[in-house]
Write a structure and sequence with these properties.
Largest sheet: 8 strands, parallel
Strand order of the largest sheet: 7-4-3-14-13-12-11-10
Shape: globular
Oligomer: single chain
Number of strands: 16
Length: 539
């Protein structure tokens, strides 16, 4: 953190990030007191639940496999539904996502023609202090009808259209902390910080505008973690005099343990939930991480781990069946392709992949899907626009029979040198950008977020841990990885040039990627040590 940071102490609350002009509009005494109240009431439970993840991982490492919980069987087999879904969330056929901190991208997403827009404090936004407070500024400006601006570089005016996408905000996950704000000497939960500030400043404005406080919740691993969120919502609504159930959320099923508790997660949040989402990239990362030490679940190249096969296909089908049984939406996954200027052939190939992916989602029964770029909204709507109505809630998919075996079935395929090199090349470049403050990063015609780097480093980690064999017969060792990494980084440095290399954070990124990939234990999240690097660079 900056040495010039101003520290404001009020009733045990310390703001350690630099207070730039205007930040006091976000970090008001009343808003900070609201966030502190959330932290004091729920912070200990959050930490206990994170410890429960650690204890569960020890069982997985010892050979126990994830499975459905016998103690919650009555919930899975019970007859119940989630509460009614608000009118402006009934049509979510295409959702666009993007970082909350970039005002131009926020406006472009709102105007993209998508039915809804997930503005992201999490994986698509690097958690620098300026990004996080800037994101809150953007959200406040939107609900105050003040978000429009003129770009000083080109004189172009950006304003929100008369019919923007419905706004949904994603706070950071339970595992993250906001180091720039402390409550009673301890960093505040990043989840409670992001949610608390946004809800405090905007909830009543949203309701007055005919919408509501809508959220995406990331990286949960159990129904008990969902219960914690529900208790937070009940408390927050009561504190501001807002009716219970006004908050509506969509939960990303992007961890392997959560896939076995989808009914339970919906049940815990039944007054506040609108649906579940297939967070496919983080789900692959979680699959590798949770089963990483088990030799029966070694995956092939990332490019061969596709949604139409094995555990990914099973998880998509089960999510649709579970959601529709409970009256909730089943949202599909991300189309990360971005247009290539001046290359029609590349664009045609990319759009064909998107169309095929969305056809699969519609066939499975999904109610909507994600895209990462405004130009893909029309492509996705070409498929989802064919639906007879705004969603597929009536499709119950009782023909789907997915159990533990199907949810754990690994993809078949090869482990190749090319796949290993791609992981190193993409992983390092993403981490370098993230440390530098960019969370949504275009790499090789795809819009990547933190899940990309997580898959890259855990995939190689798993291969090294088991001494896996590549398609050419070579054994994957730390030495082979280091040789390939050095080779790829030399080529990247030549491509980018010395100026870009030296002004960037490549040495830090290479060191972090290498250390985490060759470690004996698979670290939970690379964003935790990477966040420490952000803090060091701010100092």
């Amino acid at each position: 953190m900056s040495k010039a940071a101003a520290t404001i102490n009020a009733d045990g609350i310390a703001v350690k990030g630099t207070m730039k002009p205007g930040y006091e509009r976000v970090l008001t005494a009343e808003a900070l007191d609201f966030v502190a109240g959330l932290e004091r009431k729920f912070g200990a439970r959050r930490r206990e639940l994170l410890e429960a993840r650690t204890e569960r991982q020890k069982k997985f490492d010892a050979g126990e496999l994830p499975d459905f919980l016998p103690e919650t069987r009555s919930i899975r087999e019970g007859d119940w539904k989630v509460a009614p879904i608000p009118k402006d969330l009934l049509d979510r056929r295409v959702e666009i996502t993007g970082p909350v901190d970039n005002r131009k991208m926020v406006i472009n997403a709102l105007n993209s023609g998508a039915q809804s827009y997930m503005s992201d404090f999490e994986d698509a936004a690097a958690p620098t202090w300026d990004n996080m407070i800037g994101g809150q500024f953007n959200m406040m400006a939107y609900w105050d009808n003040e978000i429009g601006f003129t770009d000083e570089t080109n004189g172009k005016r950006y304003d929100v259209s008369e019919k923007p996408a419905t706004l949904i905000v994603r706070p950071r996950g339970w595992h993250l902390e906001e180091a720039h704000v402390e409550v009673d000497g301890r960093p505040v939960s990043a989840s409670l910080f992001d949610f608390g500030l946004y809800f405090f400043h905007n909830a009543k404005r949203q309701i007055a505008a005919g919408s509501g406080p809508y959220f995406y919740l990331p990286k949960m691993e159990s129904h008990k973690e969902a219960r914690l969120w529900n208790d937070v919502f009940v408390h927050a609504q009561k504190a501001l005099g807002i009716a219970k159930g006004t908050i509506k959320v969509t939960v990303l099923i992007e961890t392997l343990p959560a896939a076995f508790e989808m009914h339970e997660i919906l049940h815990e949040l039944k007054d506040h939930i609108a649906g579940l989402n297939c967070g496919r990239w983080d789900y692959i990362f979680s699959y590798i991480k949770r089963l990483g030490k088990n030799p029966n679940f070694i995956l092939p190249d990332r490019a061969q781990v596709v949604m139409g096969d094995a555990f990914l296909n099973a998880y998509s089908l089960l999510l649709v069946k579970t959601c529709h049984e409970r009256g909730a939406f089943a949202m599909g996954g991300m189309a990360a392709q971005i247009p290539v200027k001046g290359d029609e052939a590349a664009n045609d190939a990319a759009f064909k992949k998107v169309l095929a992916d969305k056809e699969r989602e519609v066939t499975n029964g999904h109610d909507g899907t994600w895209v990462a770029h405004p130009d893909l909204v029309e492509v996705a709507m070409e498929i989802f626009g064919k639906l007879e109505g705004p969603n597929q809630l009536a499709r119950q998919r009782q023909d789907v029979n997915v159990g533990q075996k199907e949810l754990l079935q690994p993809h078949k395929g090869e482990r190749t040198e090319g796949g290993m090199r791609e992981c190193a090349r993409v992983g390092v470049q993403y981490i370098e950008a993230w440390i530098g403050g960019r969370g949504a990063v275009p790499l090789y015609n795809l819009m990547e977020d933190a899940a990309t780097a997580e898959i890259s480093r855990t995939q190689i980690w798993q291969w090294i841990y088991h001494g896996a064999t590549l398609s050419d017969g070579r054994k994957v060792t730390p030495e082979l990885f280091t040789e390939m990494l050095d080779d790829e980084m030399k080529a990247l440095r030549e491509t980018l040039g010395e100026a870009r290399w030296n002004e960037g954070h490549f040495e830090q990124a290479i060191r972090l990627f290498s250390e985490m990939t060759t470690a004996q234990e698979c670290e939970e999240f690379l964003t935790l040590p990477a966040y420490r690097l952000i803090l060091e660079n701010e100092a």
